[in-house]
Design brief:
The protein has 64 residues and is an all-alpha fold. The protein has helices spanning 15-18, 35-52. It contains 2 helices and no strands. It is elongated. The two termini are 29 Å apart. The model has no long low-confidence stretch (mean pLDDT 92).
Length: 64
């Protein structure tokens, strides 16, 4: 069955987006979202809910 739509969402701002040097100290999978990134994620969730309402969904995710 073909999906009706595909929605792609990127993660919010992370420590690595703010300071590239952090990659020299921490593996990328351990980086946290910044406060701005957390706010972006919450806003994306609200917008996604407005779009999909009560549809059945499948989520495919990858690590940050």
């Amino acid at each position: 069955m073909k999906p009706k739509r595909i929605i792609s969402i990127r993660h919010g701002e992370s420590e690595g987006n703010v300071d590239k040097m952090v990659y020299n100290q921490k593996p990328d999978y351990t980086l946290e979202l910044t406060q701005k990134g957390l706010n972006q994620a919450l806003e994306a969730g609200k917008r996604l809910k407005e779009i999909v309402k009560d549809e059945s969904l499948f989520f495919y995710v990858s690590p940050m």
